[in-house]
Amino acid sequence: MSKQNSFRLQSVLNYKSSLVDSLETEFAQLRALQKSEEDALAHLETMVQDHTASLQRQQKNGVLDCQTIELHQKYLHFLHAHVERQKIRVAETRAQVETKREELVKTMQEQKTLEKLKDRHVARELIELNRREGRIVDDLVTTRYAREGYSHA
């Protein structure tokens, strides 16, 4: 007679379930980090555009001296360098998110496979239990019939 919850891979299924939960949390954190990095990049690009527009307005409104133009160009160069570094950070974060997504999908597939195996196991257990109950009922009916048959004869 088999025990209840005799699914041999239950501990593996439990582990995969907890791993999926953990990976979902990590994935959400990485997605938030990616959003933050993309927002920072957008902010830097806006700063570049605003400063460039400001410099162009100043040039149209009056004559700028060389030192002021040089300062603006240095600042723009600094901003462009910062934008490039931020683009690298965004790309790295996207790669991390994609790697974590693939790991999460793979682990979820493994979990679903184990759940299907467990469902099949439970179905087989139920069929076996029904067979045993059927045999017991048959034995009871046979015994009762035999008793009643002997008592009426």
Can you tell me about this structure?
The chain has a single domain (10-152), classed as Helix Hairpins, CATH 1.10.287. 91% of the residues lie in helices and 0% in strands. The chain contains 2 helices and no strands. Helix 1 (10-61) packs antiparallel against helix 2. The longest helix has 87 residues, at 66-152.
State the gist of this model.
The protein is mainly alpha-helical and 153 residues long. It is built from 2 helices and no strands.
User: What's the CATH class, please?
Assistant: Mainly Alpha
What's the architecture in CATH terms? Orthogonal Bundle
What is the strand content? Answer: under 5%
> What is the CATH topology classification name?
Helix Hairpins
Please provide the ordered H/E string of secondary-structure elements: HH
Query: What's the number of structural domains?
Result: 1
Counted by DSSP, the helix tally is 2
- Rounded to the nearest angstrom, the distance between the terminal CA atoms is 38 Å
Query: Taking all residues together, what is the mean pLDDT?
Result: 90
Query: How much is the radius of gyration in Å?
Result: 36 Å
The residue fraction in helices comes out at over 70%
| Poorly predicted runs of 5 or more residues | none
- Give a count of the beta strands, DSSP E runs of length 2 or more: 0
Q: Pairing-aware structural class of the strands and helices?
A: mainly alpha
Largest sheet: none
Which geometry do the CA atoms define?
A: rod-shaped
